[in-house]
Amino acid sequence: MARFGFLLLLAAALGSVSASPVDEQLLLGSPTALAPGQDWDWTDCGTESHIVRVQSIEVSPDPPKRGEDLTITVLGTASKDVQDGAYADVTVKVGVIKLLQKEFDVCEEARKANASIQCPVKEGTHKVTQTVTLPKEIPPAQFKVNIRGYTKDDEDLACMDLMMDFRPKRASFLSW
Questions:
Q1: What is the pTM of this model?
Q2: Calpha distance 127→122 (Å, rounded)
Q3: Which of 107, 129, 165, 170 has the fewest CB atoms below 10 angstroms from its CB?
Q4: Is 9 helix (H, G, I), strand (E, B) or coil?
Q5: 105, 22 in Cβ contact below 8 A?
Q6: How far is 89 from 147, CA to CA, in rounded Å?
Q7: Is residue 14 a contact partner of residue 92, using CB atoms and an 8 Å limit?
Q8: Distance of alpha carbon 61 from alpha carbon 131, whole angstroms
Q9: Whole-angstrom Cα distance, residue 6 to residue 130?
Q10: What CA dihedral angle connects 38, 53, 71 and 149, to 10 degrees?
Q11: Which residues are CB-neighbours of 67 under 8 A, at least 6 positions away?
Q12: What is the Cα–Cα distance from 47 to 156, expressed in whole angstroms?
């Protein structure tokens, strides 16, 4: 997937949070929390049927900060070529409230971002790095981003769940 699409989709999803009205809020399942002291996490929820599998994601700065550049490095493998027409459904939630649900054309997003990997993406292992600017308007909350990617023929392309916590950190009363 072009830059595995996750980089662009994550940036678009988080950027849209500050620009989208919170209308038609939907209650979803119970939220999953990050471990104490952890500001972000990810899970490749794909199965053997998914074409793209992510082995690692690194972010800098760690933790991500509102209003600053975020550099994301992803290592992943495509088990077969990814063609034009691939798309991803992205959902962004805060707690149980859905803030955004949008379908992105993965290849078009890569073209708009002038990504170094373009569709068709060849089978194999790819390491990509992308820098995006996180909006300073991101509310101080814990976000869960669900990305479900599909080929133009609706085959499973990728599955990724991300969590980012932008809440301010409080100093411990007994910090020794």
A1: 0.77
A2: 13
A3: 170
A4: helix
A5: no
A6: 6
A7: yes
A8: 11
A9: 10
A10: -100
A11: 133, 134, 135, 136, 138
A12: 9
From the list 60, 17, 22, the residue with the least C-alpha distance to 40 is 60
Tokens of 15: 């950027």
Say which amino acid occupies 22.
V
Provide the phi-psi class of 44: left if phi over 0, else alpha when psi is between -120 and 50, else beta.
Answer: beta
| 146 C-beta neighbours (distance < 10 Å), count | 19
Tokens of 63: 């933790």
* Structure-token match 């209003």, residue found: 67
**Nearest-angstrom CA–CA distance, 134 and 61:** 11
Determine the length of the chain: 176
> Hey, what are 35's tokens?
């471990």
- The token pair at 169 is 């950190």
Mean pLDDT in each 10-residue stretch from start to end of the chain (176 residues)? 42 40 35 68 96 95 92 93 96 94 94 83 90 91 96 97 89 59
Structural tokens at position 165: 């916590």
Cβ partners under 8 Å of residue 168, min gap 6: 140
